[in-house]
Amino acid sequence: MEKDEDKKKDLIEKAAAGPLPKFLKTMECALEKNGSGWLVGNDVTWADLNLACMITFISGIAGEDQLNKMSPKMAKFLQKVMDLPRIKEHLAKKPVSTYVPGQ
Q1: Domain for residue 101, yes or no?
Q2: Domains in the chain, number
Q3: What is the C-alpha to C-alpha distance for residues 72 and 74, in angstroms, rounded to an integer?
Q4: Residue 47, CA distances (Å) to 52, 69, 75, 88, 96 in order
């Protein structure tokens, strides 16, 4: 992880202007095409959980505000997954991670 805040901001801006919007748009289209609010079928699947993990990672690096700016639909999708009862229960019980990538 970049420690220099100016460089970090520059890297986030480059990602936000590069492949990230295309990825987010592709995932938005997949959600819209299915019509249920999930990637496949009418209920949550591993595909949705995997996407939620990716969006959480993006949000963790870029920040929630940046995610909301880039893709309000993906931010809403992530919240939908995080609001699932068993996900909420797991998140409430799991220990806080002290892992910092790159350190």
Answers
A1: no
A2: 1
A3: 5
A4: 9, 24, 16, 18, 25
Task: Answer yes or no: is 96 within a domain.
Answer: no
pTM: 0.79
pLDDT digits 0-9 by tens, 42-83: 999 999 999 999 999 888 777 788 888 889 999 999 999 999
- Joined tokens for residue 91: 């998140």
- Please answer whether residues 84 and 78 qualify as being in contact, where contact means their C-beta atoms are separated by less than 8 angstroms: no
CATH number of the domain enclosing 65 = 1.20.1050.10
Q: What is the domain range of residue 48?
A: 24-84
Q: Are 48 and 81 a contacting pair, CB within 8 Å?
A: yes
Look up tokens 């591993």; give the residue: 46
